[in-house]
Design brief:
Elements (H helix, E strand, L loop, with lengths): L10 H24 L5 H14 L6 H5 L2 H13 L3 H30 L5 H12 L7 H4 L15 H21 L6 H17 L4 H17 L6 H25 L6 E3 L3 H6 L3 H8 L1 H9 L1 H5 L2 H19 E3 L10 H21 L5 H28 L4
Antiparallel strand pairs: 1-2
């Protein structure tokens, strides 16, 4: 006779999903239906409506990155939802899927380390809401601009990218660690790689060189890795999509390009960039300092930090020329890779052996500050309907 699962087994996952829906529904509803000081959601809704009719009027760069618009088009065609409701449903569902993906990372770790069951749900929600420690808010009244924010509520394509990014990064770590994938699994990884890059290419342009560097290092040291899986599941599909996007966005559209312009965009957003950079990465920085030797031996941490380093370099050093100069689109590179770094760092911390009390307090204080300021940032976005 098979024993029934304990009645409390699903208590915390269900509570987490309800909390995610209750937190993110009003945040996205206010931007889509009430309007605010930024028009990202309404603008993307307009793009999706244009896709329904004819996409010939769309800018070339919009045509290159239309993952979100196709999602809205799907809801409209399949269920007849108007595009605003489709946008709201898509955004909330993306956060729910992200919660499921992240929770599945922590649930077995919490059980293995004999921690309270509710901690997996709390960690997941904390990671989803963590934000820069905006200590300079009394000076410049900014909680986002000038920082690197792992959490954003105003841009629909980054909302779509986050769950896909965690899945793709996890698969990359698995193959880099030597696990052999079958042909069908490689095909599935390739499909995820295509979807992730098409949704928003900012992770792809950071992950690809980082993954290449680590793969070469492991090959040189004769360490095991699934080279076939990496090439066919990630490198080949990502390069193909990126090449197509580059042609559409920068060759067919001659009004814009990519230039080496250090700090030009970021200085336009805010001063005190060094302080804001450190305030953005305090938790993973303190963690890696405490566990430096162990972190250097962990392929996930090395890949996460390398990917983030490239994302930060793109953000601070590169810019699009022409009319998109002030858009700061390379900023999404640092933001998505920082979110991944937060998730990987927390997984690493839960697995790590105990350390001295003051070191543990330093790590937990840094994490608590990121979550506390994340709640403050959420309330700012909800009440003031702006993101900065």
């Amino acid at each position: 006779m098979v024993e029934a699962p304990p009645p409390t087994r699903w208590r915390y996952p269900i509570a987490l999903l309800l909390a995610v829906a209750l937190v993110y529904y009003p945040a996205f509803h206010s931007q889509i239906y009430l309007g605010g000081k930024l028009d990202d959601f309404p603008l993307h809704i307009a793009y999706a409506m244009e896709l329904q009719n004819t996409w010939h009027g769309l800018d070339l760069v919009v045509r290159a990155y239309m993952g979100w618009q196709h999602a809205l088009y799907f809801w409209n065609r399949l269920f007849g939802l108007d595009f605003r409701l489709a946008s709201l449903v898509s955004a909330v569902l993306c956060e729910i899927v992200l919660a499921v993906v992240v929770y599945r990372l922590f649930s077995p770790l919490v059980r293995a380390n004999r921690l309270a069951a509710w901690k997996a749900a709390a960690i997941t929600l904390g990671l989803m809401m963590a934000a820069p420690i905006s200590v300079l808010w009394p000076v410049d009244h900014l909680m986002y601009l000038g920082y690197l924010g792992p959490t954003s509520y105003h841009n629909p394509s980054i909302v779509l990218l986050r769950p896909l990014a965690i899945v793709q990064f996890g698969l990359a770590c698995t193959m880099l660690g030597g696990t052999r994938f079958s042909g069908w699994r490689i095909a599935g990884v390739a499909a995820i790689s295509i979807l992730t890059t098409f949704a928003k290419p900012n992770l792809a342009i950071c992950l690809l060189p980082a993954l290449g560097l680590l793969a070469l290092a492991r090959l040189a040291r004769k360490q095991d890795l699934d080279l076939r899986g990496l090439v066919l599941g990630i490198f080949a599909p990502v390069v193909a999509v990126l090449a197509w996007q580059f042609v559409v966005a920068y060759i067919m559209d001659e009004k814009s390009g990519i230039a080496f312009m250090p700090l030009v965009v970021m200085r336009g957003y805010s001063d005190h960039l060094a302080i804001k950079f450190l305030a953005s990465i305090l938790f993973p920085a303190v963690l890696v300092l405490v566990y430096l030797r162990r972190a250097l031996a962990d392929v996930r941490m090395v890949l996460a930090w390398t990917t983030f380093a490239l994302g930060a370099a793109y953000t601070y050093l590169l810019a699009e020329t022409g009319k998109r100069l002030t858009h700061g689109n390379f900023g999404w590179c640092a933001e998505i890779t920082l979110f991944i770094l937060f998730v990987v760092s927390m997984v690493f911390y839960v697995e790590a052996p105990a350390t001295s009390r003051w070191k543990a307090w330093a790590i937990q204080l840094a994490w608590g500050l990121h979550v506390a300021f994340g709640v403050a940032y959420y309330l700012n976005c909800l009440i003031n309907r702006n993101f900065w």
